[in-house]
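Quarterly update from the structural biology core.
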Amino acid sequence: MLFSMYIDNGMFEESIGVFDYMEKSRFEIHDKSCMVLLLALKRCDKMDMCFSFFRRMVEANVEITVHSLIIVIHGLYKGGEVERAKDLMEEMVTKGIEPNVFTYNTLINGFIIKSMVDEALKDGEKGVRPNTFTYNILINGNCKKEKFEEPKRLLEEMEKYRVRPNTVTYNVLIDMYCKKRKTEEAHKLIGHMEVKGVRPGIFTYNALIDGNCKKGNFEEAKRLLVEMEKCGVRPDTVTYNVLIEMYCKKGKMEEVHKLIGHMEAKGVRPDIVTYNALINGNRKKGNFEEAKWLLVDMEKHGVRPDTVTYNTLIDIYYKKGKIEEAHKLRGHMEAKGVRPDIVTYNALIDGNRKMEEAHKLRGHMDAKGVRPDNVTYNPLIDGNRKKGNFEEAKWLLVDMEKCRVRPDTVTYNALIDMYCKKGKMEDAHKQRGHMEAKGVRPNIVTYNALVYGALIYGYFKNGNLKEAKQLLEELEKGRVRPNIAIYNALIDGYCKKQKMEEAHKLRDRMEAMGNIPDGYTYVPLIHSELLSRNSAEALKLFNEMKQRGITPNVVTYATVISSLSKQGRPDEVLRLHDEMIEAGITLNTARS
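Predicted structure, tokenized:
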């Protein structure tokens, strides 16, 4: 009586004191009485005391049953002490206490939670015959660890040992196949379920609909919605959300509205996921007013907007150039108790044209404990580059590294471009070296900045074409393939220096590398050939340009017409003049 009274009042130390007194006085102590204390200690998360008391029970020669053992093992597993639970069970086996299937299931589940699938499988192979719950734990654990062959084997093993799979068994497997986009395998399992007399439920259909949507099987997803209703399975919010998101991503807003009507007719209320999908769908379609109205509608229906809702709307405002409204929405968001996250701040910084405001937002992030990332810093660096605030841009790189944010290609490209435009080629090269040292690979944008924006023109001014050529060769040998802009910049440079042979060779090389010449390739070649009084070659290039479907600009037409006129070729001048008018090009365009 006293022992139980102390337990009921949470006086566990006193209860153990009574136990010690009973042992010293050689009273008979029953396992059932001790189980009450073990359960109470487990419920109060006092597992050290629970484990210690169990040890006292063993020392006092209390007849331990499997039920007491289960309480302690379950408590240890809940506290994440799976190895300790396993050791205890193995010790008890040596003392003649045979664990039952529930004990093993508890341990197996513990190993699965700790991602120790191999240990779980070993325990599943012990002498106790596994039940459906055992197999479900093992199948689920293997699916989570993406060991996809093992769940199939376990299902076959269940049949072999006549352990009947239930809805949970099939749902776990169907979900696994759908997530891996193996919807055919998932559909086969539906047939297997029917043969075994196991009815698919809401989770089964939701997994199948989601899997088919992700795979792009939209008609099949729609068919499954009809089928589930015929089978008496009522679609829930998750079902509709999956389909609504699918249609929103495809921009099929008419189908979305039909689904919303269907949803409401069935008494299924839209939730935050529904509204977020609708707002995002309208954002993609440019239905700005509809997206704004949805915010009002969701609040009216008691659905609280979250960070995703506000972030989508802030993005809409910025894309529409409504900066002030975006900032007001952030204020509305905070007033409603919704904390802006990294996405919110990044959208606000990226969309802000005023660098002073953008920097204030960066400071606001620190005050709110929101850690910046690349997407935060890159628009700040680029914005300062465009404004000519080079010292600020450089400082931001230092600050970025100090905050342990790893600069990416976009970061370095902005800084390299900045140095190139300032003519600081040494600094541009240093930055590229720094970039490569940090394991960030230069891309075509990097080389365009170096070659097109600065390096090549810098070399041309100094007459150092050799260096420019070397840079192109470096590109051709490396992993970054030179693009048409780089070749055009070099061709233009050779033309300006009247090195026509090299310019033509480069054009041939460019084509060999799979770059088709465009207007920017032909124009400097034509103009330079005319300047060299090589009008035959210029006309050949001019005709070749047109044959390739490239319309010459007004300056090219004017230059060629002028050259033909000087050569006394009036028929060709008139033909080209008519050709210009037919193309909608007039010489007035050149003057304006």
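The CA atoms of residues 346 and 376 lie 5 Å apart.
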